[in-house]
Amino acid sequence: MPARPLIIDTDPGVDDAVALVLALRSPEVDVRAVVAAFGNVGPERTLDNAGRILALAGREDVPLGAGAEQPLVHRRALRAGHVHGDDGLGGRAAHLPEPVAPHPGSGIALMARVLEETREPVTIASIGPLTDTALLLAAHPGLAERIERIVVMGGAIGGGNITGAAEFNVHADPEAAHRVLTQDRVPVALVPLETTLGCAAGPEWIAALTGAGPVCAELAAMIAPYYGYYRDRYGRDAVALHDAIALLECVAPGSLAATPIPLGVDTGFGPARGATVPYRAPDATTPPVDVLSAPDVPAVLDAVLARLAGQASPCSIA
Ligand code: RIB
Ligand code: CA
């Protein structure tokens, strides 16, 4: 079976780094472009980080684009340096190889070009703010039919992380998230915070990652300070690698279980800004979003580790 084309829209970010390596090492997908936008840290840093991760993985062949530098409508200052480190990669960015140079032009233009040039339907993994994905759909409506589905790491049905109500990626640009989650042109699958927190990896998993070769050892070094944040914040000896869980679904569809739920996003300026809630507007034709959950957490974590270690084969299942 030919590898399925994939575009990754990201804001590296420690868990983004793990997700990128997982995708780059999964034979079932062909990563056609990586676009780095503002999010965990500023856009200059996320672009540099994405370029370094591509070089670390030996995938200088993958085109890199500069994504959105700010949200669609309202600027926001909230970053997540306290989680991912000021450099966005747990203090390890300077230890990585020199970054791959970004392609000239915008990340949106790169995404549109990949869609125009690819015969097979393309999956888009949106693992940062949804700004680029929303802009792509708005600027190139005719390309929606070229998109297989959009897999989003984001949202929280049961309570947020950056605020009590909102998950970071949706809170970063609620208007963009509203555009993507309520459009009816492209199927959307959402991997929410409760699913990714439920798939947190413990010390044995990290030890196995550390021993799985030099690239995985570097990922484990990036994760170390991020792990400490999660242990302190959630009181569990485990770390949530949110984006890697979403990318597992991209490389091995069906790894997670889907429940169709129509969602609304709070784009107001109250305490619930950025909240994702089960909701169907009275006059809406909004199709439901496939909200993904993990009924078998050990199998999910085993599959993520196997792919990072380069052990996955096209016939393997998650
Ligand atoms: O809330 C978790 C999400 O926000 C992840 O994508 C993480 O990288 C940050 O972007
Ligand atoms: Ca991210």
UniProtKB/TrEMBL annotation:
Protein name as annotated: Pyrimidine-specific ribonucleoside hydrolase
PROSITE patterns assigned to the protein according to its UniProt record, in alphabetical order: IUNH (PS01247)
Inosine/uridine-preferring nucleoside hydrolase domain boundaries: 6-301
InterPro entries xrefs: I/U_nuclsd_hydro_CS, Inosine/uridine_hydrolase_dom, IUNH, Ribo_hydro-like
Record's keyword terms, sorted: Glycosidase, Hydrolase
One Gene Ontology MF term: hydrolase activity, acting on glycosyl bonds
Xref: SUPFAM superfamilies: Nucleoside hydrolase
Entry-linked PANTHER family: INOSINE-URIDINE PREFERRING NUCLEOSIDE HYDROLASE, URIDINE NUCLEOSIDASE
Phylogenetic placement of the source organism: Bacteria, Bacillati, Actinomycetota, Actinomycetes, Pseudonocardiales
E.C. numbers: 3.2.-.-
